Amino acid sequence: MKLPLCLLAAALSVSAQTPTPSPTLTGRWQVTAELFGSPRYLSLNFDQKGTALTGEFTGDKLTGTVSGASVSFISKDTEGNTDAFTGKLEDGTLRGTCTEVDITDPAHPLVFPMTATLIPPLEHPTPQRHDFIPTVFYRQFSPFNKPVLTVNPGDTIHTTTVDAGGSDEYSIQRVSGGNPETGPFYIKGANPGDTLVVHIVHLKLNRDWAGSDDNIVSRGLGPDLAVKSKDNNKSVRWHIDLAAGTASPINSGDHVKTFAIPLHPMLGCMATATPLAMAPPGTGDSGFYGGNMDFNQIAEGATIYLPVTNPGALLYFGDGHAAQGDGELNGNALETSMDVEVTVDVIPNKHIGDPRVETDDAIISMGLEGDLNEAFRSATGNMADWLATDYKLTPSEVAQVIGSSAEYHVSEVADRNAGMILKLKKSTLATLAK
Amino acid sequence: MKLPLCLLAAALSVSAQTPTPSPTLTGRWQVTAELFGSPRYLSLNFDQKGTALTGEFTGDKLTGTVSGASVSFISKDTEGNTDAFTGKLEDGTLRGTCTEVDITDPAHPLVFPMTATLIPPLEHPTPQRHDFIPTVFYRQFSPFNKPVLTVNPGDTIHTTTVDAGGSDEYSIQRVSGGNPETGPFYIKGANPGDTLVVHIVHLKLNRDWAGSDDNIVSRGLGPDLAVKSKDNNKSVRWHIDLAAGTASPINSGDHVKTFAIPLHPMLGCMATATPLAMAPPGTGDSGFYGGNMDFNQIAEGATIYLPVTNPGALLYFGDGHAAQGDGELNGNALETSMDVEVTVDVIPNKHIGDPRVETDDAIISMGLEGDLNEAFRSATGNMADWLATDYKLTPSEVAQVIGSSAEYHVSEVADRNAGMILKLKKSTLATLAK
Amino acid sequence: MKLPLCLLAAALSVSAQTPTPSPTLTGRWQVTAELFGSPRYLSLNFDQKGTALTGEFTGDKLTGTVSGASVSFISKDTEGNTDAFTGKLEDGTLRGTCTEVDITDPAHPLVFPMTATLIPPLEHPTPQRHDFIPTVFYRQFSPFNKPVLTVNPGDTIHTTTVDAGGSDEYSIQRVSGGNPETGPFYIKGANPGDTLVVHIVHLKLNRDWAGSDDNIVSRGLGPDLAVKSKDNNKSVRWHIDLAAGTASPINSGDHVKTFAIPLHPMLGCMATATPLAMAPPGTGDSGFYGGNMDFNQIAEGATIYLPVTNPGALLYFGDGHAAQGDGELNGNALETSMDVEVTVDVIPNKHIGDPRVETDDAIISMGLEGDLNEAFRSATGNMADWLATDYKLTPSEVAQVIGSSAEYHVSEVADRNAGMILKLKKSTLATLAK
Amino acid sequence: MKLPLCLLAAALSVSAQTPTPSPTLTGRWQVTAELFGSPRYLSLNFDQKGTALTGEFTGDKLTGTVSGASVSFISKDTEGNTDAFTGKLEDGTLRGTCTEVDITDPAHPLVFPMTATLIPPLEHPTPQRHDFIPTVFYRQFSPFNKPVLTVNPGDTIHTTTVDAGGSDEYSIQRVSGGNPETGPFYIKGANPGDTLVVHIVHLKLNRDWAGSDDNIVSRGLGPDLAVKSKDNNKSVRWHIDLAAGTASPINSGDHVKTFAIPLHPMLGCMATATPLAMAPPGTGDSGFYGGNMDFNQIAEGATIYLPVTNPGALLYFGDGHAAQGDGELNGNALETSMDVEVTVDVIPNKHIGDPRVETDDAIISMGLEGDLNEAFRSATGNMADWLATDYKLTPSEVAQVIGSSAEYHVSEVADRNAGMILKLKKSTLATLAK
Description:
Four copies of one chain form a homotetramer. The first copy, chain A, is mainly beta.
């Protein structure tokens, strides 16, 4: 089936137009439409010249007129389907009605109410540090959960996360398992079509154990290994030795008695809430919104970029791992509670269609798809978009840069989506012509 | 269809029995059978106690008797199919006839001649260094090509390789393209069922350019990127700056004018010849025998382990790359000629079913399969075998070690097989209990 | 992360024990636990002998005692984790508290309230036919939507569905698009652990057009076809000619002016509501619960078997297609409204882990996974389970029957899950020994 | 690496130009080049106007001149690489030298000798029927095997094939197993760039048994089924009851004692020899040349289209199956010897890049790739090419026809390539506008 033209437009549209301060309608608007009783966010940009309006509505070009408080415009997509709006501007809010006509069925237009407000320039007040103690944990990356805290761009949030099974730093289970999340945090000034920037300042372990197991998930099991591993099915508790900086399995096999791996705390989940039109995903899932990415470089010092599809972005995070091999092959990594400090910011009117990660020395695109082949394709395409947009490379140049310099790692095999990442070193990118 | 029982046995059988010096038949034998006019190598191990023989033939247990020069034995597989041999030992060579009976069709036995000689203990004469100038280059990893040089275990071979298109260090094309190989080198004492060890001592670039292109292979192309890249289709010549240690594309786009990547010479191809019963693969292909693996850590300092399926192992290598991103996304890496120095050795009676790589700080298993999902499974299964055999880990312990510590990278997406590698750090493995 | 032991047990547990009428506790119980404020359904079977209880709780063996109204039992899984219940039976309802102890963390038990009622034998009152006119349409296969109608096993429901875009038989859009569903229907006597049986008696087209498009979804697009199809992106309206029994695209290309395909009405979606612990999937998704399977043999005359994970099963259906090629390659099939008549029934205490379809002449298993390779594996494994359970075949016999006789078709490539089906002819199965 | 420009050109080039009878050079030429001691076939088309030549060489446009017996031309590809030929025409044979210049390395041209003859119009003499008794069987689809019989277009070949294990109709093993083939047959008038047409007139079983097994190949084995099937590993002999038209496993399980499946004889293998530049594939492999496709509709009445890449096409076939479920899930189908009657024909100057099948009621494209996802993409792309070329459909129309009407089945999962087929009913295609 096909969605009505405008339904997911907020998540999908890209606006190349930078809003400029103006006493007129010129600028980027935050639109809420009411479709069959449910709200949807749509994209709208006006460029006013006298009484004439041009711009973009849900990704399509619009033309319109302003006459006193009355505003009307029409936009048309490549097939000829149209959206026609008429309304009035009162106290800075545009209210009216949109009529959508499907060119293959003009007899049955869709009519819906719509309100819009001009998005003000992003502000960065004096940065604040918020100590936040969570009391509720959510199991869906839902836009319908009430924000637990509102912060400004530039602020720092210091809080904790429970482990994937719901247990906190005191080993008390606080919630049903399944990657319960801390959040959502409302970031002021974030609007659909923006990019949320989350920098992980500190990620500290806050208890002395992690839970894991000895399974191998089915993406790792060929028939021979499946038969060999048929009796694997036990929980494994790991001791976290903060002083030594290592973790070791407890009583879990003669040959692993002394086995010790370096601690490398990371967050399995980080997400913005999903669009209103979408069934809110469970916290075991992942996608363009981030989610349960289980990528072991989402760690202290990393910066994560996520698309904003709701006002306030609604940031969630959780599912801390004391360490994790690539892919989270056991289904569980070293699951543990965590002490988290992040700073948040917003890049206005910058649309990315997928999660991105930046570390001290590299930029990293991610592909999250139903299998590793598609995840590889997606990570490649996402980096190609990044290089084309931010580095202005041509398709030929993109191919030369990625082909000669990309590192591809598996990020995730344990969940519904498989993940692959593509990493480019900043030192190599630094040699590109300006 | 099913192959006759013994056909590929040499490649598949594993013998746990270490040959001990003995004046009797006890020990491991090199067997050549003659099937419908074509030779095949089979595995045979005898343990002689008086006139009684036990042991293994093509992977199945045998029982037999020695009576003067007469030797006879019979082996049976799990289904009840039998191989019965009778022959005579003359001048150290056992000659006779084998009768194979398929239990579902006993009326039509297969009878074939067979000769065998006892494999002597492996010798390591004083190591020699061979300077070898190639004059012929092969385009199949074939067991039917005449060895170009015979060396002893422990010897060093210093030679050169032409680039994938067949051009040498003087830019002279010497052979049709398609990864023409230097070799095959015959390593004395290597027998089917052994492992060949190739250590890359030096890998030096010997000209100032490499050839590549701006394509993206289809494993990297989703529909969107395919459309964006539709006009990519040009050769790109890279300048190799040995002094600076970098390579840069020449006249290949405004934004890559100053682009420079670190040189990292590697060999795209390294292989032992394939079993006699198999159609010799082209040098663009890969498999258990190694081949066109295009893995960018097969570089100076690395040690490669390959299964031996022919007497002398018959080592090939070629397809040098001045540098390569993970996967060889362009189809061509920075293709160039190379100055190569390797030492070779043999691990007798050690069977590995897949190529393995060891570096200073890690052991690396490889999966080479029709797609990345299967390559991931295969790399995992191959490392599980490695840890079970060489580190004596139980299946549960294997899962804990890999799950907590594995790195998975893409090695190859450009050829028929996709490749994934699984890397474990030696520093982590060092903490395992002895 | 690992879920608490009992969380998803209702969906996963299988009980081999047939309840027998008894004045005692013996029988199958419907259990509702309260976990951190949210209900979960668990499985419980008692076999009472005097004051002694045996049976199964959440898939694990239990032992317990009855003393007057007091009931207590303990169950243990293979790792040694335990659930201990103590409670009282009053007016047929067992109320009490369950204490769950994780053997790796005994200091932190999980305690939760639990109520249970004995499931009575399934009843089939005189079948009724319900004419139901839907006024609300849901976009998630949620257990939280209020049932629109309650029916008995054996009853017939006659109703209508809107098309995938939300338009009804009068071309009036009634709801936002995205496969809005008719339902949920509550089937009395259906309990978690049962199988719902839905027989499609009639499936009639009720308007003269369907909407589709000329896209090819990315699973069908290699790089070459992607480039060739880069300008495909239009809606295509099809005329439905009920008299001729065909559909034809309208004004959609010179060569398809006279193109006409046979009508073959089908339902793209049919599902039971998902378990309480799971994020309710959107109606574009599919899984063990059925959902948006888009399989073109879910048509008049077919019987669909779906697992029950909520009391009443909560049946949804919608997304009618006038016809559809295998896989729904365009993303949209011939999307249209439909007149639907189904009969429903329940197989008590019969657990299936995946949707199954039966037609006049065949049984059909389905694999719904992230890619076609996994969907193939899943369809194979699901049919192997079916043959082992219902036909008592050994694993060797399963392989012989499937290997010699299976037909494998693609059912779905348009959505997040890919689908493959495995079909076995009843005429062939009829030759199996009884 | 990149192949020299012309190496595989014969297999790849397409000429849209139909040769017309002419006393001049105008027409299509069969070219043999000599590259580093090995022959290669290249494509060449001349259109002579006076002394001026235009046309195509290895897929690139050429311009040239004729001066008496002297002929010279130059062709250039899109990158600017050139091939320049100068030679003489004597007794209908053009002999000369071609100089290939790579624009990125003009200092090192490649020079090679070349001969060419004008391809005469295809002739169809009075059809003959050849009874051919094979005495040799090949295990590679090699262009280097001597043809066993030469026939004309329109002729019928009546012969036999041994089973996949090499046993004939008398149960005598004639050759090592691995799908030994009957052929190659040389079809006069077939030239690189043509299409070979093979119609299967009769396919008759000629003995009363077939060999199979109870394995499930790894593409069908998820972890659960792998564990359940871990002891499956036996040969299964099937009795062929020609009178009843069925086959039944012998002594292979209590529940399959009476199991009987309909006989449906098919050929697992049919191929043309592969291009000279390619390592000849083993007879277990498949590709654009056909090969071990294991598609159960390659049966009596079917017509198979295969690309010709060598003079005479060099047709091979073998690997008969008495019956086979989709995909050959056991690795072996019901392997048996066969009595085969085919008629052969040639479509001159018609290039297809992949095997195609036509039955009484359908046309069928095939995708043979490393996994089922890619095979699905490939089957789709191949049918899109077919519809565009032979039915003149636009990309939008292609999508509408396939999307509404395609059937997709699995053809092969047992070998290195997976196979998917796309079937379109002729009755539906018949409604397309002429």
